[in-house]
Specification:
Radius of gyration: 23 Å
Number of helices: 2
Distance between the termini: 59 Å
Oligomer: single chain
Order of helices and strands: HEEEH
Mean pLDDT: 81
């Protein structure tokens, strides 16, 4: 049996600490999908390495998504993403040119 070293396991385990999740507050005995009740309030929970604990409260799905996935910070020093023009050639996804 190939057991991984304890240091690798601890590194992988510690990487999950601080992870957030949103739980909709709806009646029922089991978790529901987030898309089913978009207007329901949510509890944002944080993983502390051993259990999920309360972190924040969100009024609906949109607010919960803003908390879970904040927009990346924009810096003026970073160049804007420029689209790459298509290079010459015939990839299998390109239409054939007329006359070919």
């Amino acid at each position: 049996m190939n057991d991984e070293p304890l240091s690798e396991w601890a590194e992988r385990h510690d990487a999950k600490i601080g992870r957030l999740r949103a739980i909709p507050l709806v009646s029922g005995n089991r978790p529901k999908g987030s898309h089913l009740h978009p207007d329901a309030p949510r509890v944002i929970q944080r993983w502390n390495g051993h259990a999920w604990e309360f972190h924040e409260f969100a009024a609906n799905l949109t607010e919960a998504q803003r908390i879970l996935h904040p927009p990346p910070e924009q810096s003026s020093a970073a160049p804007a993403h420029l689209p790459q023009p298509l290079s010459a050639g015939r990839g299998r996804h390109r239409r054939p040119r007329p006359g070919e």
